[in-house]
Design a protein that fits this description.
With 376 residues, the protein is mainly β. The chain has 4 domains: 5-114, Phage tail proteins - horseshoe like beta roll fold (Roll), CATH 2.30.300.10; 118-203, 3-Layer(bab) Sandwich (Phage tail protein beta-alpha-beta fold); 213-232 and 305-346 and 359-364, Baseplate protein-like domain - beta roll fold (Phage tail proteins - horseshoe like beta roll fold, Roll); 234-301, no CATH class. The protein has 6 helices and 23 strands. It has helices spanning 21-26, 53-61, 130-139, 172-182, 288-301, 314-317, and strands spanning 5-12, 17-18, 27-35, 41-47, 69-76, 79-94, 103-110, 119-124, 146-150, 167-171, 186-191, 198-203, 212-216, 227-232, 238-245, 252-256, 268-271, 276-279, 306-313, 326-330, 338-350, 355-364, 366-369. Strands 1, 2, 3, 4, 5, 6, 7, 13, 14, 19, 20, 21 and 22 form a 13-stranded mixed sheet that branches. A 3-stranded mixed sheet has the order 9-12-11, with helices on one face. It has a 3-stranded mixed sheet with strand order 16-15-18, with helices on one face. A hairpin with a 5-residue loop joins strand 3 and strand 4. Helix 3 runs antiparallel to helix 4 (172-182). It starts with a strand and ends in a 7-residue tail after the last strand.
């Protein structure tokens, strides 16, 4: 099998450009973490000397200052994958008495960090649904290549200005996440497919689509993971209910929330039992549609009682494993084989040694696969 790895690094204030060849040659380690429900992050380590271009020119000129934009692309076997499009937040220099041992380490997070830098007191959004408000806020970051992908809410909420005027409090990101939580949605940046462009997704967590090639263990030469383990934690799953008040009598009415979503269907045949029964807090203050929307989001978030984790070599796997996608598992036994949702992936790359490792975490709702085969 062809095993080739090439890294492309773009860096610059707003529109990043390819880094000089001397910067690529000095790059010794790359780590990128992508996780569902959290901001993605990256860390780059460079070997620097007193007479290197980085030490003499680029570092004093501010190329690695906070808020400088960085795009990392891994090209494996000729197929490019944009790992992250983000912003530097920290730099560290470790000097050394030994020649060639000094290092520069820069750390950063994805572009949604820009949405969390400035806070507003009370910005009104009269007569605007949540999706219109989110779209307007994301549009402010189009110069950074962030393209809004906003899914309309399941239960439309159109506030009349004579009754209510929604106000933004806090940063753009805080308000977007608040609206996502209220509607059982998620918000994240999905970099690519082209360098310098990203999708800013606001909508339900999508767990459908074409699965990635299966993670195989116990198949001798056909195995493509170094380690794989699973666990079932019954305490993590909750049966969620909302309690709303009847407007006239003020009698509370409990409404159980099913874990049903067209975009996030069950991935296992036998649902893990729920050990907890909880009520959504403050649901009585909401109208029924808002309460049900929040309940659906909380029920979906607690459904993943089965989790898995492991490590793989990208060259052995044959491609880059992507987070927030489906993947098959085989060789773990009847209970744990089948499809999983990839919750997080950490990329660890050593360019000089030509190594590309990934650690990952998986999740689904229960045991026993729904389908007898997975894509290999």
């Amino acid at each position: 099998m062809l095993k080739s790895l090439r890294l492309s690094l773009l860096i610059g204030p707003m529109l990043p450009i390819p880094a000089p060849p001397s910067v690529i040659e000095a790059l010794t380690a790359v780590q990128v973490t992508t996780s569902s429900g959290q901001r993605s992050g990256f860390q780059l380590t460079f070997a620097v000397g007193a007479d290197s271009l980085i030490s003499r020119v680029l570092l004093p000129a501010g190329l690695f200052d906070p808020k400088i934009r960085v795009v990392i692309v891994a090209i494996v076997n000729g197929l490019p994958s944009v790992l992250i499009d983000g912003i530097i937040i920290r730099q560290e220099v470790a000097a050394s008495n030994d020649p060639g041992m000094a290092t520069l380490t820069i750390t950063g997070e994805d572009l949604t960090l820009l949405m969390d830098l400035n806070e507003l007191l009370r910005l009104p959004f009269p007569a605007m649904t949540p999706e219109l408000r989110v779209g307007a806020l994301i549009a402010k970051y189009l110069p950074y290549g962030l393209v809004p992908v906003v899914v309309p809410t399941l239960f439309p909420d159109f506030p009349l200005p004579i009754e209510e005027i929604p106000f933004q409090k806090g940063s753009d990101l805080a308000y977007i996440n608040e609206l996502a939580k209220k509607n059982g949605y998620v918000f994240y940046q999905d970099p690519g497919p082209l360098p310098g462009a990203s999708l800013a997704y606001w909508g339900p967590e999508v767990r459908i689509g074409i699965p990635q090639p299966a993670l195989s263990i116990g198949f001798d030469a056909a195995s493509n993971v170094d380690a794989l383990s699973f666990s079932l934690d019954g305490s993590s799953r909750e049966q969620v209910a909302v309690s709303i008040q009847e407007p006239l009598t003020k009698i509370p009415i409990p409404i159980p929330i099913p874990e049903i979503s067209l975009l996030s269907p069950p991935l296992a045949l036998r649902q893990a039992p729920a050990l907890k029964y909880t009520f959504l807090s403050d649901a009585a203050k909401l109208n029924p549609l808002r309460a049900v929307a929040q309940g659906l989001g909380k029920a979906a978030a607690s459904a993943d009682a089965v989790t898995g984790s492991g490590q793989l070599d990208v060259f052995r796997y044959g491609r880059v494993l992507q987070a927030r996608r489906l993947v098959g598992v085989r060789g773990a036994g009847l209970a744990y084989d089948g499809l999983y949702y990839v919750k997080s992936v950490t990329h660890t790359i050593a360019p000089r040694r030509g190594e590309y490792k990934q650690s990952f975490s998986l999740a689904r709702n229960g045991l026993i696969p729904l389908t007898p085969v997975v894509v290999v």
